[in-house]
Structures are given as structure tokens and as C-alpha cells.
Amino acid sequence: MKTLKIKLNENSYRILIGKNVLSNLIEHVNSIPVTKCLFIIDQNVEKYHLETIRNVFASINCKTYKYIFNATEFNKSLNQTKLIYKFLSDTYFDRNSVIISFGGGITGDVSAFAASTFMRGIKFIQIPTTLLSMVDSSVGGKTGVNFDNRKNLIGTFYQPDSVFIYPAFLESLPDKEILSGAGEVFKYAFLSDGKNYNLLKNNLKKFFNKNMSGIEATVEICLKIKSNIVSQDEKEITGLRKILNLGHTFAHAFEVQSKYKLTHGEAVIGGVYCALFLSENLEYLSKQKLNLFLKDFNFIKMNKILGSLDENKIYESMTGDKKNVSGKIKLVLLEDIGKIIIDVSVGKSVIINSIRKMKSLMLNDGLL
Ligand SMILES: NC(=O)c1ccc[n+]([C@@H]2O[C@H](COP(=O)([O-])OP(=O)(O)OC[C@H]3O[C@@H](n4cnc5c(N)ncnc54)[C@H](O)[C@@H]3O)[C@@H](O)[C@H]2O)c1
Hints:
Elements: E1 2-6, E2 13-17, H1 21-31, E3 36-42, H2 43-48, H3 50-59, E4 63-69, H4 78-90, E5 98-103, H5 105-117, E6 123-128, H6 131-137, E7 145-147, E8 150-154, E9 162-165, H7 175-189, H8 194-208, H9 215-232, H10 248-257, H11 264-281, H12 287-296, H13 305-308, H14 311-319, E10 330-336, E11 339-345, H15 348-363
Parallel strand pairs: 2-9, 3-4, 3-5, 5-6, 6-9
Antiparallel strand pairs: 1-2, 7-8, 10-11
Helix pairs in contact: 4-5, 6-7, 6-9, 7-8, 7-11, 10-11, 10-14, 11-15
The structure holds nicotinamide-adenine-dinucleotide.
Nicotinamide-adenine-dinucleotide is lined by residues 42, 44-45, 48, 71, 73, 76, 103-107, 109, 129-130, 132-133, 136-137, 140, 142, 151-152, 169, 172-173, 177, 180, 263-265.
């Protein structure tokens, strides 16, 4: 079993990764004084892992309840959160109770948002069940729901009590969702150093060839990178944490404009490519480096939907992104691996240009 630590001024917490972590989860919950426990479970996770969850459920000593959640971006909403509040209220949850989320990033984000706001915050534990949530969303404390056709517009910073990563959950995850997780791994490849770039690139190549042998190592590398960043800038105050948004202003617009037919990770792949093209266009990144990156990742297949999106509408969506300041689009760009530049203001024409380059890369099947 591997243990990582998120070190914060208050409420530092542990991430446990391995095949026995569900026993650690039971032991942990039984060791804290909680009165009630709500399992919010993704409906597909309930379907494929009923026995596993039933065993955990039966081993928790306090009064335990189950809430099945249908994880779609449309259900990542205030309305669905209200239903969770109603359940908590009807069953008299109090401030000594705990919510445990079993699911991907959508279930995790909504459950964490509900936990952070119900009675001004009750204990919350993350059990991520998708690759994307294992490498990224279960850690770091960003919670939220979509609102007004904008991604994650309403939310809080609220750290979980702990995170337990049980890789066997991935055995039932559809290929499309593995490749969605690969989108965030692609982003992490650029965020630290040459060694991690190569390790993540090699593992990503395996995932695109349906070989999952590098999963645990990938989860560990990405979470080490994220823990290090979040420990230094928990609430995006110094700016360091913004580097985790590489490609995300584009990605959120792609998701919204595709009416969520693109998964988050598929949109992030398109977004990271746009950020690379834009970085070269503005001369932060050399043409030589750009070409090297494109060659290194030429095994990545993008979702064709990216090619059909209207560039002007994407731009319009990007102007509504919550990371903008005074109506100006602020992007995360890069000079090199681990040399990330934040808050770059960019105009419409360069944005549209980078989207066109990403599309032409896609249409040429990975080749420019
Ligand atoms: N909070 C953060 O820091 C953060 C970071 C990155 C992404 N996100 C958010 O995460 C969301 C995407 O998360 P996701 O990719 O995990 O998607 P998701 O939660 O929608 O899960 C994807 C699909 O996989 C199914 N599923 C989940 N676990 C399964 C399993 N073990 N076996 C079979 N099917 C399973 C779900 O039912 C769903 O259909 C987006 O809303 C994104 O904005 C949040």
C-alpha cells in the first residue's frame, strides 16, 4: 500500500492507494466518532461492485445510509444537491456525521459540495472509481456544480478527511472512460519534470493500446505532482495552483459546446493541444519543442466531436469562464516541461487560430 500526504496549514490528510485500502477505510471510519454515515454511490459502481460495497457498508459501526447517484454533467447541479440535502435533513444527519462518495469526478464533486455546505460542513471521504478521479479530482478540495450552462460555476474549497484509492474499481470502467482519465494524465506530463514527462508518456501510450499495467504508477505520479502543488497553494491564492488548469479554459468550453457529449478528459486533451499551439504562436514555446511534444504524443487519438465544434461559440463560452478577470480570458501556457506561465491575456484571433490547429492535428490523425 502507498500513502501520500497533502500537507496543509489546517486539515492535512492522507491518500491511501492499494488493494487493501477498503479495510483501512472501515478501520478509519470506525475509529472516528461519527453518528451517521451516508454512502453516495455512482449507479454504475453500485451495479458492478455491489458485493464490495455491501461488505464495506456492513462493516461500518454507525448508522449507515445509501444514496444512488446518476453521474452525468446535467446532474452535477444545484437541483441534485438539493435532493442530497433533503435526504440528509430527512434522516437527521448532524455535524458529527460523514459522507463517503464512491464514484468518479462528478459524484465526488457533487458529494463534496453537499458535504461542504450542509450544516456549514460535515466530514467527507473520497473513494474515486474512475481513472480521472484517481489521478486528479478526488484530491485537492475543489468541489462544485455546473450552473447556467457554465462548468463548476458554484463551488467551494473543502478538503476531504481522507482519500482511499482501490485500483480494482477500474476493472469495470469502460475504455472511453479510461481514455478520459488519460486526458488529465496528458496534462500532468507537462507539469513537473522530464523524468515524469517520460514516465507518464510511456504509460499513456500503454493505455491507448489497452494495456493497463502502468495504472498504479500513473496514479501515484499524478497525485504526487498535485499534492505538491496543492500543499503550497491550497486555494489558488499565490497562483501556483493555476498551473493545474492547463488546457482547462478551452476544455470547459468544448464540454459545454458539445452538450457534454465529450467527456471531461476528452475535452482536456483538445484543450492541452490548443494551449501548446497558442504557446508556440505567442513565442513562449519554440517550434522545435512543440514538434517534439506532438511527435511524442502522436499515439493520442482525439474524439472527432472536437473537429465539429463552432470556433466562435467556443470563444463565447470561454469568455464566461470563471478564471477570467474583468472579462479578459486568462490562460495557462507553457515555455517547456515544468515551466508554466499563468494569467496570460489573449485575444480572439489567436484563440481561434489555436483551435483550428488542434482541429487540423486531429483531422490528420495525430500528424500536422
Ligand atoms: N474537483 C476537481 O479538482 C476536478 C478535477 C478534474 C475534473 N473534475 C470533474 O470531474 C468530472 C469528470 O469525472 P469522471 O471522468 O470521473 O466522470 P464521471 O464521474 O462522470 O464518471 C464517468 C462514467 O463512468 C461511470 N463509472 C464510474 N466509476 C465506474 C466504474 N468503476 N466502473 C464502471 N463505470 C464507472 C460513471 O457512472 C460515469 O458514467 C467533471 O465534471 C470534471 O469537471 C473535477
